[in-house]
Amino acid sequence: GDSVTQMEGPVTLSEEAFLTINCTYTATGYPSLFWYVQYPGEGLQLLLKATKADDKGSNKGFEATYRKETTSFHLEKGSVQVSDSAVYFCALSGYNQGGKLIFGQGTELSVKP
Amino acid sequence: EPEVTQTPSHQVTQMGQEVILRCVPISNHLYFYWYRQILGQKVEFLVSFYNNEISEKSEIFDDQFSVERPDGSNFTLKIRSTKLEDSAMYFCACSLSAGGGMPKNIQYFGAGTRLSVL
């Protein structure tokens, strides 16, 4: 079945460092891909999405490109801030599969001043 | 901004007891979901609900689980006889309709209910 694999955490960075969180997926057809973020004590919030190959999702300085050839959707940010400390989840929604999301295991990011 | 509200934030129960987790989705959203996350593991899909019936359920969603939309605003998950392994964070989510009987692909999540079964 469909699945998502994320890099293990926790990831600890200094403020203004470059961030990459790797995400790869296995799916039949053409899934939509998402990054969700969970700040402490809050629910999952959609960070960005891409619905077809070569689409780039972006929001709040974060970017991810839907790469069908490598089945990847890596999250990047050029300069992280302390306020970016959170857990990041990569997820997919299969085409015409009623909307259920399949998540990766989450990657905890801690940014130190 | 509209939000999904889940209550309680933390529920402690004894093994074998029934629990009801409550969610108030965003009004005018038509698709509803429950997910759970056991500590240290992935967020897992449990069930989707549309038009007053279950659209899809996972293997986890066995006879001990049920969902209901008892009125126009609440969406509940009931666990009939809790087990230790039901201890997890439970998330409710909802989405708008994209038309043609399909949801839009953006889901909005609540903050979750942490269920502790002792």
Describe this structure in words.
- The complex is a heterodimer of chains A (113) and B (118).
- In chain A, 0% of the residues lie in helices and 50% in strands.
- Chain A has strands at 3-6, 11-14, 19-21, 23-26, 32-38, 44-50, 56-59, 62-65, 75-77, 86-93, 101-103, 107-112.
- Helices cover 0% and strands 53% of the residues of chain B.
- Chain B has no helices and 13 strands.
- In chain B, strand 4 (31-37) and strand 5 form a beta hairpin.
- Chain B is globular.
- The termini of chain B are far apart.
- The mean pLDDT of chain B is 92.
- The chains are: A mainly beta (113), B mainly beta (118).
- Chains A and B meet through strand 6, strand 10 and strand 11 of A and strand 4, strand 5, strand 9, strand 11 and strand 12 of B.
TL;DR?
The termini of chain A are far apart. Chain A has 113 residues and is mainly β.
